[in-house]
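The protein record now logged underneath.
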Amino acid sequence: MSKPAVLSTRDLLLIASSVFLSLLLIAGNNYLLAKRQPRYGIVDIVEIYKEKESELALVALKKGATDQDQEQMRGIAQKFGRDLQAALEQLPRDCDCILLNRGAVVAGGSIPDYTAALKARLGAKP
């Protein structure tokens, strides 16, 4: 009959330190992954477009609107498009979140709404 193998103190310390190091690496990885969870925010693009549309309609439909008024309206609309694009590119960097259109969100009442912040960047009334 052979004798059972007995581990030395050195071997036990080596095993214990390997297990501890593995647990430390796993915990660190989980901590880093949890910090990188994406955050979401919503904006109501339709509401913003409707407000700008009604503002432009006042210019376009006013009695006695001239070609100059129409040209001014087109300029305002083009500037709004550029400003909206710039704001939609900057806002996610500032809030460190992924922006979703409100119409695309089916559920999720706890998602922060950044519509007012977007309107403020565009110079609109909140």
In short: The radius of gyration is 29 Å. Helices lie at 9-35, 45-61, 67-95, 115-121. Residues 64 and 70 are 11 Å apart (CA to CA). The domain at 40-121 is CATH 3.30.910 (Protein Binding, DinI Protein; Chain A).
